[in-house]
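Appendix B.2, paired examples.
Example (i):
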Amino acid sequence: MSQLSELEKKRAIAICVLTVSDTRDKETDKSGGTIIRMAKKAGHQIVDYRICTDEPTEISRNVEEWLGDAAAEAIIITGGSGIGFRDVTIETVTPYFTKTIDGFGELFRFLSYTEDVGSKALLSRATAGSIDDKVLFALPGSSKAVKLAMDKLILPELHHIVHELTKHRKE
């Protein structure tokens, strides 16, 4: 596995944030706000932030637009990942994946289980995958779950993931 240079470890990653919700707006979106706040604090750049309804066409439209944006390196989605009838984020985004990052969902559920959620963690369908040279994370809508994912998984590994997905450009 390649070592990241100090410069690569400090470089801001360009992140797009999507909140999937039928009830939230930018004033009431705690989870999207948590992603933005934590990413900025870690030195990353939020290049776009949107909210859309729990509709596959709306989710796809946003994801496809960001996939076509050369500046976007990571997409973080919150909401629509449960088992309810309107929870369609996972079904909508996984067909785009070039590769699934299985360990993300596995570790997220393990951490959720051990950090207070208990057996309810089995209901989480949080996932991640690469789409060509970008990474997409799909998180629950809970701000506590978002904080856990950002703090323990996404922020510690984001530079490494982006490096692995883009190193072919440098070779």
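Example (ii):
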Amino acid sequence: MPTLNLFTNIPIDPVIASDILKDATKAVAKIIGKPESYVMIVLNGGVPIAFAGTEEPAAYGEVISIGGLNPTVNGKLSSTIADILQTKLSIDSSRFYIKFYDVERSFFGFNGSTF
């Protein structure tokens, strides 16, 4: 159930999007310590974003998970996702924010119920 929502102002080619989804899924699963079969990545390209007063390439991300998040994990996730965005979309890490949410099971729905 870890979910990574990524938003960027860069239009994303479908092939690059597929690469980002695969790389991010593997990274989130490995770093948080959950199976890949539980991980969801949502990628939104071409979203209007201004950061530091400009519309230069930028991104915003949110990681939501039931457990598994802590300062060490969050730092690794932030660095790894920033590296993916730099490599695949040329977004500098100084133009990327990411927020982490560690939620209770009852606040995460799946299969018509909650965890």
